Amino acid sequence: MPRLGRRGSIARLHTPTGRDHMDKLTIRDVDVAGKRVFVRVDFNVPLEDGKVTDDSRIRAALPTIRHLLSHGAKVILASHLGRPNGKVHDGLRLRPAAERLTQLIGKNVSVTGDALGIGTVDAIKRLRPGELILLENLRFHAEEEKNDPEFAAQLAAYADIYVNDAFGTAHRAHASTVGIAKLLPAYAGFLMEAEIKALSNLLEAPARPFAAVVGGAKVSGKLDVLDNLMSKVDVLVLGGGMANTFLLAQGKSIGKSLAEHDMVDEATRVLASAQAHGVRVILPVDVIVAKEVTRGTEYKTLLADKIPASWHIVDVGAATLELMEDALRDARTVFW
Asked: pTM surpassing 0.85?
């Protein structure tokens, strides 16, 4: 079995101080007693029937949260959940995450009605040392993903100190990860510190063969990651919705499948870069397709270059799984 590396981004890593090197001040380096501390966490957790089905991301933030509370901070937690595209979506509210966090830390965690507004300002003003509050889903505001300076300034006005403990979003230039860090004294949380250290060790001297597995829906959000990987890895496995864009770059039809048609040229460039660097790229050779992306619909397995115009790619096929397993079998380091 291959030895697995840590999951994360090796793109331009937007670390808490806004600089791009690995030596960061952490929450050990600041007196937070009585201070308002804005903590960017990653509570983008799966939900089912209004309950968190996997709380690992919430648990990962506990050491930072507990440290700040025990040292007398007034903690303002902030996160996104899902892709509401700048609109309020009741199914993507953060109350289930707050309820689970309440259970884990034994303190009541209330959620504001909105990330902004007079009610939120008043709730933060009422915080006492050792108390915390969770802002409602930041992505209910389109300005979050646009890294809007005014939105970042409104968030920064809540606090005296900024802490980033959301490593999974550190590669995204959003208001709560980049904009606010330029306006407040910024520090890394314990999770961010641990992930950066693990990532640094992984990239400085990885055991080879070194393979990377990259997925997700969009190529556009992973371009920097892919560009950085080319000079480091021996094998690159591409999956998820983004693989469809690369299939288009290979001249294949993907029917009605999810893809970024405006990123085909970039995908073509990435494939050319991989060839130039001697990186073996693994893409789907067969896929499971469905007439509709709904439960109970008709589906079948086809070669990746034989997709009917009205069908959707929903998963990889058995031959692709075998190809991926073969590509990873001899890897001594896997980054995913």
From this structure: no
